[in-house]
Amino acid sequence: MSLNTHPNFWLKPLTFLYGAGVKMRNAFFDHGLLKQETFNIPVICVGNITVGGTGKTPHVEYLIELLRDHYRIAVLSRGYKRKTKGLIEACTESTVGEVGDEPKQIKLKYPDVRVIVDGNRRRALKWLLEQPVEKRPQIVILDDGYQHRYIKPSYAILLTDYNRPMIEDSLLPEGRLREPMNGRFRADCVIITKCPETMQPIDRRIADRDLGLYPHQKAFFSAMVYGKPRSIISGKETDLPSDTPLLVISGIAKPEPFHLYLSNSYLIAEKLVFDDHHNFSIQEIDDIDKKFRQQLNNNPNAAVVTTEKDAMRLAEFADYLSEEIKERLFYIPIKVKIMFGMENSFNKLIHQAASRTNFSI
């Protein structure tokens, strides 16, 4: 294939311009021309330098589980694809349109955690610190905040997908990198996510070497652990027989691991794939209902299964669903597992970061 017929050839000029702009922005922050603020509260940033699909929300939830018994926690998010503007504090009754699907998921799972959505996260953090002492968080988790450099985190966690390593990627729009690879050096630790549970120690050493981190940076590896299906309507856990035919709905950045897990555990009758953070329409809900009725005609034990994030959006259409589909509508919860016996080491680093208080405004 000649250069000028390569599918990404015409994206190279745009990639060059995008890269130049990002490098200039980072240089301005590095040299103090754009101001970063530090705060008198620990701020743990979880993010990536690629677009989508590294598992940020499950890792944020891992940190919440680890710290919630010791600290009052707040999570700051921009609330991607919400329909509102400005600063909003999520509550358990908030809709996806108001706060976004991931903030809603976090708030429903952890009602005691304050979840704030605001595109200007520096403003949101200042607002939190103005709250009465008894309501003020003791630690803030900055969700998807790696490029939000106006806040200088006390500890930065960078995520990279095992199945698409950032070292093999290129800048937008030719690739999926939000910023050049040297952005990884701002991280205190890097987690290679979505690793296969069968990953061998030799694969770990190769991946660790390829990251090329500084000596003070730590590398960890995590896998996604899928739980038992839960009803979207009642929240109750259930056991589905392995021969259950499934209508699978996914609207996430990289649905392939989810589909692989389901195909290894159940029978996938049909897959409906939507864009990440897809906002369902009433017509699409009606189509899903009709497709499921067809599945029920073939097998009365059929079920509809979706991701935990998609469940946040589908649940809001419960009034438009038939009783048949409500009874057989499930999501698969996921959580993160730190691999290779490194969980205690990782947890210790997080507790150390959470206990730091020597910051100034």
UniProtKB/TrEMBL annotation:
<comment type="function">
    <text>Transfers the gamma-phosphate of ATP to the 4'-position of a tetraacyldisaccharide 1-phosphate intermediate (termed DS-1-P) to form tetraacyldisaccharide 1,4'-bis-phosphate (lipid IVA).</text>
</comment>
<comment type="pathway">
    <text>Glycolipid biosynthesis; lipid IV(A) biosynthesis; lipid IV(A) from (3R)-3-hydroxytetradecanoyl-[acyl-carrier-protein] and UDP-N-acetyl-alpha-D-glucosamine: step 6/6.</text>
</comment>
<keyword id="KW-0444">Lipid biosynthesis</keyword>
<keyword id="KW-0067">ATP-binding</keyword>
<keyword id="KW-0441">Lipid A biosynthesis</keyword>
<dbReference type="GO" id="GO:0009244">
    <property type="term" value="P:lipopolysaccharide core region biosynthetic process"/>
</dbReference>
<dbReference type="GO" id="GO:0005524">
    <property type="term" value="F:ATP binding"/>
</dbReference>
<dbReference type="InterPro" id="IPR003758">
    <property type="entry name" value="LpxK"/>
</dbReference>
<dbReference type="Pfam" id="PF02606">
    <property type="entry name" value="LpxK"/>
</dbReference>
<dbReference type="GO" id="GO:0005886">
    <property type="term" value="C:plasma membrane"/>
</dbReference>
<feature type="binding site">
    <location>
        <begin position="50"/>
        <end position="57"/>
    </location>
    <ligand>
        <name>ATP</name>
    </ligand>
</feature>
<dbReference type="InterPro" id="IPR027417">
    <property type="entry name" value="P-loop_NTPase"/>
</dbReference>
<protein>
    <recommendedName>
        <fullName>Tetraacyldisaccharide 4'-kinase</fullName>
        <ecNumber>2.7.1.130</ecNumber>
    </recommendedName>
</protein>
<keyword id="KW-0418">Kinase</keyword>
<comment type="similarity">
    <text>Belongs to the LpxK family.</text>
</comment>
<keyword id="KW-0443">Lipid metabolism</keyword>
<keyword id="KW-0547">Nucleotide-binding</keyword>
<keyword id="KW-0808">Transferase</keyword>
<dbReference type="GO" id="GO:0009029">
    <property type="term" value="F:lipid-A 4'-kinase activity"/>
</dbReference>
<dbReference type="GO" id="GO:0009245">
    <property type="term" value="P:lipid A biosynthetic process"/>
</dbReference>
